[in-house]
Specification:
The structure holds three protein chains of three kinds. Chain B folds into two domains: about 60 residues, 3 helical TM bundles of succinate and fumarate reductases, CATH 1.20.1300.10; about 45 residues, no CATH class. Chain B contains five helices and two strands. A two-stranded antiparallel sheet of chain B has the order 1-2. In chain B, a hairpin with a 2-residue loop joins strand 1 and strand 2. The N and C termini of chain B lie far apart (about 75 Å). Chain C folds into two domains: about 100 residues, Beta-grasp domain (Ubiquitin-like (UB roll)); about 130 residues, Fumarate Reductase Iron-sulfur Protein, Chain B, domain 2, CATH 1.10.1060. In chain C, strands 2-1-5-3-4 form a five-stranded mixed sheet. The termini of chain C are far apart. The chains are: A mainly alpha, B mainly alpha, C alpha+beta. The interface between A and B is large, with 55 and 54 residues.
Chain lengths: ~110, ~130, ~250
């Protein structure tokens, strides 16, 4: 029996699940306010720009975006199997592919700020 | 005496509707879809931010659209559920042994809740919500 | 004098007669303190001697009377009839296993998987007898004690949605038994066991639905064991791929 290479993505999944449990609810609440046309001060261009211009801010945004994607890709792979889809390889390639592209794009946009 | 074991088949597409426990687990797994979409929404915001104030203003404007509003209302309870269901089992993945005994799971779960609520309040405060 | 009446709807399957299982209803006069196993024994002794099922100890130790009671995998000796009054209770053999006859399941799959995970102490080198016993502190014992409580009743497999979907999945009880030995301070066999437990069919087919732990009559918490194994397997995988691995022992 060959050992699985799943640990590679499982590490990202577990880290992402934990991180998003801590941060995603409050972030969704903040952008929910923006969705009502009443964004809090932090979302003003000057403030958010200053946050993302700082390398710590960049790192935070990068990690949250990237790990959200890896977490979702890995968990949805299991969920879709549970829903009866059996094209596991295609689902894995698509999900992890989107996560990898999203990770690269996040880094690319953030260094430009 | 002849052996002829009978195999009961289950539906591979609807099995989770048969039992509440399985349905709850399936919903828990599907909350990740909203965490993922929200990651893409953040990526979109960062892209807009990198393109300057005008693009960012358009992003904030787009957030007020009906699709965004609907997404936020569906996503909010589901990402809350993701957080709660995730924290509630943390002690299983990471039990802590102190001396001979294991720390009761409620302390490990409780610590996660304390940090979660504290962090969320700090974010809301820093963001200028209150 | 019976205290309450129980309607049992028992799955019957005779491989020599039946094309598929059917249900047969029995009305059983029960005493208040009876468990479901007592009611089934009453059927066997007084109503229908053709009924087949497994049981032995009647005290949640032997693990042979695991069955589906009202849709949940339970030990028939630990489920009280008073919790099922005024309704018809369905009794079926454990879900996710083939039916041998009536309430008797075919357990060969589990037995083979249990063998594969090497559920025994593995030493790289045995200490000579003259050096004495392998000593263990209470803290070292507590690290795995909970997992020794498994009685192989297989209620966890009957509850596991992943085992239902992926029959190759090694599954909760067998993997937990591997974890029990991995956690034992006297054991040195984790690398050997990981050949099975860290394969796709091992811990990686687990989706952490937690159903195994919720139904476990002995509170073994297999889900906890499997999540810990995922973490350890991940660390071992990274160490191995970064060239720092404790290779096969």
């Amino acid at each position: 029996m060959a050992k699985s290479n799943k640990p590679l993505v499982w590490g990202l999944f577990a880290a992402g699940g934990t991180l998003t449990a801590f941060v995603t609810p409050v972030l969704v609440y903040v952008t929910l306010m923006a969705a009502y046309g009443d964004p809090p001060a932090a979302l003003d261009y000057e403030n958010i720009q200053a946050f993302a211009a700082n390398w710590l801010g960049k790192l935070a945004l990068f990690v949250v975006i990237s790990l959200s994607l890896w977490f979702a890709a890995h968990r949805l792979r299991t969920a879709l199997h549970g829903l009866g889809l059996r094209a596991d390889t295609a689902i894995a390639v698509a999900g992890y592919g989107i996560s990898a592209v999203g990770t690269v794009l996040a880094a690319y946009y953030l260094v430009q700020i | 005496m002849s052996r002829r074991p009978y195999v009961r088949r289950i539906s591979t597409t609807t099995w989770y509707l048969k039992k509440k426990r399985d349905l709850v687990h399936m919903i828990q797994e599907l909350t990740s879809l909203f965490v993922g979409i929200y990651g893409i929404l953040l990526l979109w915001g960062v892209k807009a931010l990198s393109e300057g104030p005008e693009a960012y203003g358009a992003f904030l404007e787009a957030l007020t659209g009906p699709l965004s509003l609907a997404f936020h209302w569906v996503a909010f309870p589901l990402v809350l559920y993701h957080a709660i269901s995730w924290f509630n089992v943390t002690h299983k993945a990471m039990p802590i042994q102190r001396g001979e005994e294991f720390l009761p799971g409620k302390y490990i779960v409780g610590a996660h809740y304390v940090v979660w609520i504290g962090f969320s309040l700090v974010v809301l405060f820093v963001a200028g919500v209150f | 004098m019976s205290d309450l009446q129980l309607e049992l709807e028992i799955l019957r399957y005779d491989p020599e007669q039946d094309q598929e299982p059917r249900f047969q209803t029995y009305s059983v006069p029960c005493q208040e303190e009876w468990v479901v196993l007592d009611a089934i024994n009453y059927v066997k002794d007084h109503i229908d001697s053709t009924l087949s099922y497994r049981w032995s100890c009647h005290m949640a130790v032997c693990g042979s009377c695991g069955m589906m009671i009202d849709g949940e995998p339970k030990l028939a000796c630990k489920a009280f009839v008073r919790d099922y009054v005024n309704k018809t209770v369905r009794i079926e053999p454990l879900a996710n296993f083939p039916i041998e006859r009536d309430l008797v399941s075919v357990l060969d799959d589990f037995m083979n998987k249990l063998r594969r995970v090497k559920p025994y102490l593995i030493r790289k080198e045995e200490k000579p007898l003259s050096e004495g016993e392998y000593r263990q502190t209470p803290a070292e014992l507590n690290k795995y004690k909970q997992y020794t409580l498994c009685i192989n009743c297989l209620c966890c497999y009957a509850a596991c949605p992943q085992y239902a979907l992926i029959p190759e999945f090694i599954g909760p009880a067998a993997l937990t038994m591997a974890h029990r030995y991995n956690q034992d301070s006297r054991d040195q066999g984790r690398a050997q066991r990981e050949e099975e437990t860290a394969s796709h069919e091992g811990v990686w087919d687990c989706a952490f639905a937690d159903a195994c732990s919720l139904v476990c009559p002995k509170h073994v918490d297999p889900a906890s064991a499997l999540q810990q194994m995922k973490i350890t397997s991940t660390v071992d995988w990274y160490l191995e791929h970064l060239g720092m691995g404790g290779k096969k022992s």
